[in-house]
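Shift notes (night). Ran Thioesterase domain-containing protein while the centrifuge was going.
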Amino acid sequence: MSIRTSFLPGLRTSIDLAHRPSNNLVSKLGRSTRGYTTATHTHTAAHVDGAGTHAHAHTQHHGHVKRRGAFRKWSIRLALALAFPATYITGAAFPPQLVLMIFPRYAPPPPHKDSTRGKVHTSDVEQCLQELDLVEEMRIKVHKGEGWYETRPYDKYDPQKVHNSLTAGSLRGPGKLAVPPVLFAKTDESQAIAVIHLGRALCGHDGIVHGGLLATVLDESLGRNALLNLPSRIGVTANLNINYRSPCMADQFVVVRTKIDQLKGRKAVVSATMETLTGERVADATAIFIEPKWAQFLASSGVTEAMGRPMPSPSKSPALMDEQTERII
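Came back to this:
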């Protein structure tokens, strides 16, 4: 037996009691602990319930966003699926000019002018020409007596000479200069407006009218305006300057506007513009025409006759048929 046990029995009891918690303290601590545990459980449950509610609400919101995102995605896919065919069909039916220049449409060889297909083609071009808004507007001015008249250059050409003419013979036919131009001129011959169809067989680059052909058309148009202001109505090209502004697509109508800029003796200075029906400038030009000293030798060439003049009244301007005076038709 130890001294502490033998001689200090109360100390051990005190120590044991000191190390052993009392029932009341344990009870209080237990109640406090259970209360804290219960409170904690309750708070946790509430938090869990709140989290569950939040999670449920978040899930519903996420599902709504997901359904909306899926709808938008399929709407975009459907729009693209419809846009590509629509764009292709529209582009094939109405291709832009750049596409036509890079990938010109195939065109069969032009038919002979006396063939059935050639006659149909010529008839179609003539009908389109007669129905143009510009032609109808100018005819109203003619009928109102505003100082304009209408004519068809190269419509009546000597059949014995037509095969030797570039514009009236070699270039005339379906796919080329299918029909004679319609021309409106001032009665004083100060200016003129010509509407001309340029066919598919007049190209340099496929689908684009040759620049040399445009120069020929401008030279003919300028020459008509100039020659009808020279004393003998006969002249030749002394100078021709052309500025090409944009490619001229084939198989379309162009409008050539000419005017007299200066008249001095045997010299005429004229200018011209060439545009599409939509107003796009194709080219512009200036030229000088002179009446040669040997003009009398060209009086029977037929060029002046083919330019188109209004039939004069016999009482005012009789048409003389000698070698030194032009035949006015």
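Residues 1-19, 25-57, 311-329 have pLDDT under 50 and may be disordered. The chain has two domains: 3-77, 116-306.
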